[in-house]
Amino acid sequence: MQRRFYRSEEGIVLVTRDMLRKLGHKQER
User: Fold this and answer.
1) Contacts of 3 (CB under 8 A, 6+ apart)
2) Is residue 12 classed as helix, strand or coil in its secondary structure?
3) Distance from C-alpha of 10 to C-alpha of 27, rounded to nearest angstrom
4) Is the dihedral of CA 13, 10, 12, 21 positive or negative?
5) pLDDT for residue 21
6) Per-residue pLDDT tens digits for 1-29
7) DSSP 7
8) Residue of 5, 9, 8, 11 lying closest to 19 (CA atoms)
9) Keywords in UniProt for this one (predicted)?
């Protein structure tokens, strides 16, 4: 699923959310 980011801010938010999700799933305390 590759979505094109219309705005830099939206792209950063989506990337950050994805990173946090992956980190959260890997590090569940």
Assistant:
1) 14
2) helix
3) 25
4) positive
5) 92
6) 566 655 778 788 888 999 999 988 877 66
7) S
8) 11
9) Nucleotidyltransferase, Transferase
Question: Tokens 């219309």 label which residue?
Answer: 6
C-alpha dist (Å) from residue 24 to 4, 5, 13, 15, 16: 24, 23, 16, 14, 12
User: Which H helix or E strand runs over 25?
Assistant: helix 8-26
Within 8 A by CB and 6+ apart from 11, the residues are 5
Residue 10 tokens read as 């939206």
DSSP letter (8 states) at residue 27: S
Q: CA 17, CA 19: separation in Å to the nearest integer?
A: 5
